[in-house]
Amino acid sequence: MATISDVAKLTGLSKSTVSRVINNHPYISKEKRKLVEKAMDELGYQPNPSARRLRGQLTSTIGVVVPRIANPFFSYLLASIEQTAFQNNYQVLMFQSNENKEKEVYFLNLLKTKQVDGLIMTAVENDWNTIEPFTKYGPIILCNEYLSSASIPMIRVNQTKGAYLAAKHFIDQGHTKIAYCTGGLFADDGKDKDRNKGYQQALEEAGIPLNPSWIFINKHSIEDGKKVMKDIIELKDNPTAIFTGSDEIAAGVIIQAKELGLKVPEDIAVIGFDDQPSAEMLDPKLTTIRQPIEQMGQKAVEVLLSLLNKSEPENKMPELPVELVVRNST
Amino acid sequence: MATISDVAKLTGLSKSTVSRVINNHPYISKEKRKLVEKAMDELGYQPNPSARRLRGQLTSTIGVVVPRIANPFFSYLLASIEQTAFQNNYQVLMFQSNENKEKEVYFLNLLKTKQVDGLIMTAVENDWNTIEPFTKYGPIILCNEYLSSASIPMIRVNQTKGAYLAAKHFIDQGHTKIAYCTGGLFADDGKDKDRNKGYQQALEEAGIPLNPSWIFINKHSIEDGKKVMKDIIELKDNPTAIFTGSDEIAAGVIIQAKELGLKVPEDIAVIGFDDQPSAEMLDPKLTTIRQPIEQMGQKAVEVLLSLLNKSEPENKMPELPVELVVRNST
DNA sequence: TTGTAAGCGTTATCAT
DNA sequence: ATGATAACGCTTACAA
Predict the structure, then answer these.
(1) Where is the HTH lacI-type domain (chains A, B) (predicted)?
(2) B114 CB and strand C closer than 7 A
(3) Which of A101, A328, B24, B242 has the maximum number of C-beta atoms within 10 A of its C-beta?
């Protein structure tokens, strides 16, 4: 590996001059610049990032925490983040928290040791009190996640509107018995409160009372979706429509419904959330709420980088738009 | 951030002694060791990885190159790699090549600058001559990818057997007109030659001649699958079965077949490759070849780490088993 | 415009 | 068993 000294030696100049060329400092004669550039090329020279980092200069790596990368939502988000980061000459250190608090803390420590310059968290497991102390070592931002107690940038979509659109769509179609799944609890705080609010709001506007036996909490996977459908059919009073928290749950619901001999949407209408490729694979194709995943990742990187460059981002709390995509499950 | 000097100062010992404690050197009195450990704890000391790296010591990051992380196959693979790496105290720097040769070279350079200690490539864009020179900076291994000209470890599944099983399954069901999709070319070398071989072998054994108009090359996505199905229906002589190169292509084929009013498997039987969650979402559920993705990622990390520790891995070229999963599309 | 030298946090070598 | 010191590759005062 060629070092800066090799370049200096080859050109007969000092390390400082070479460094200045590398870092695009002003006040360098054109001829020496050319000379240095030629030498760097010849030697295949690349600055050593560890040295730069140690010296307190250049930042180049951002960390991204996802719960599980195999979840398509997060893999799409990561794809967008990596791409945007790369365009800005940043690399991405990727972690799965696996919904494990200790692992999350381990990652946060990487900020402390400057392994990463900043952190994008797409989900958080610990509470804010645990995370807050790490913010003094580097910027941490939330993307997709929401923490009401935190005061750091959060990139998110208008979840309330998403849930509202879904419920409203059902109501417009004449449904009044509308079930609801959430990944968290049906409570007034927590990350799902916005969606809960949207759902409630639409019902309220239409004068439809809430039926607690149609609310399903802590649902995430395809299997959960199947289970929900099984539970629904056991109810005395069956809902005619269900708004699931994700396309995955929706998939489970639809698969199970068909297995039970039910017709979608005639017997039960289904709306998902995310608009993943699987939405098109399902039969009937899934009506769902589209999240602007690509935009979310892009925005997250932009905000983080502007924080790293000490310039305040224009908007630290952008709220990205959601959209109802009507297909055949409603 | 506390440094080693802070610890030295607090204990009244030298940096050397502290360093020895950190690195578990022998010949340290129990009492000083305790003393140092206590101080490190108090200060919340963490060794600075950049410094260690610069000093040519400790390694802790592996790089993983995938084509597109949003592709479920690769997101599952990455999930497994990250998890295994974490269990071994390694971090994962993740890159998407986006099938771009230059970006790939950029990543390879990270090995040169010791940003990553080793590299797992799950697909390669450049040819071996371009990649080979980088192997002198650190171990590079292939996982899922195969390069006949290379002599580095390759973790892969028995692709030949996978394709053979699929074709054989069709034949056993009485099919003789069996179409085939590949991500590459239908040639004697290249990454898909093993699958091509398996397909041909099964046909040959059954005395079925190859029909070139049923061979589709360079197929990858759902859209490609739809296109293939459209092309098939235009043929004078229609195949009755198709072995696609991935579950994604299979999804496209099935979706399009239904749109064209064809019944799967009655009018056309379909087999995918991978066994992704989407295989269960499709209607009919997809018969497919299951790859042991989790095992692949795990094995890849194990081999890479043993290379990093200079110990030869027991088996540098493991070939993992595939399996036919019969569902309703055949 | 260019060069000299100090220092970032570690660990290895050489003393003691 | 412990300590002093140099070196890893880089950037940045400061000097010239």
Answers:
(1) 2-56
(2) no
(3) B242
* pLDDT tier, A320 (very low <50, low <70, confident <90, very high otherwise): very high
H helix or E strand, kind and range, residue B105:
helix B101-112
Chain B: nearest CA to A306, how far in angstroms? Answer: 22
Nearest residue to B141 via CA among B114, B120, B123, B116: B120
Instruction: Report whether CATH 3.30.360.10 matches the domain A159-292.
Output: no
B chain contacts of residue A93, beta-carbon cutoff 8 Å: 61, 91-94
| Count of positions (residues) in chain B | 330
A112 Cβ within 7 A of any nucleic strand C atom: no
What's the pLDDT score for residue B146? 84
Q: pTM (2 decimals)?
A: 0.89
Report the residue from A76, A91, A114 with minimal CB separation from B48.
A114
Length of chain A: 330
User: Above 90 in pLDDT, residue A96?
Assistant: yes
Give residue A11's identity as a one-letter amino acid code.
T
Stretches in chain B below the pLDDT threshold 70: 57-59, 187-191
Give the domain ranges of chain A: 4-46, 61-156+293-320, 159-292
Q: Where does A61-156+293-320 sit in CATH, by number?
A: 3.40.50.2300
Which of A66, A80, A91, A253 to probe by mutation at the B interface, max B CB count within 10 Å?
A91
Same fold, B4-46 and B61-156+293-320: no
Tokens 């009013």 sit on residue: B261
pLDDT digits (tens, 9 = 90+) for A214-251: 999 999 999 999 999 999 999 999 999 999 989 999 99
Q: At what angle do helices B15-22 and B30-43 cross, to 10 degrees?
A: 90
pLDDT at position A188 is: 63
What local confidence, expressed as pLDDT, does residue B89 receive? 84
pLDDT of residue B137: 84
Q: What is the pLDDT of residue B149?
A: 86
Right CATH for B4-46 from 1.20.140.150, 3.40.50.2300, 1.10.260.40, 3.30.70.1400: 1.10.260.40
pLDDT at B252: 97
Ramachandran angles phi, psi of B140, nearest 5°: -125, 130
Q: Measured CA to C1', what is the nucleotide nearest A35?
A: C2
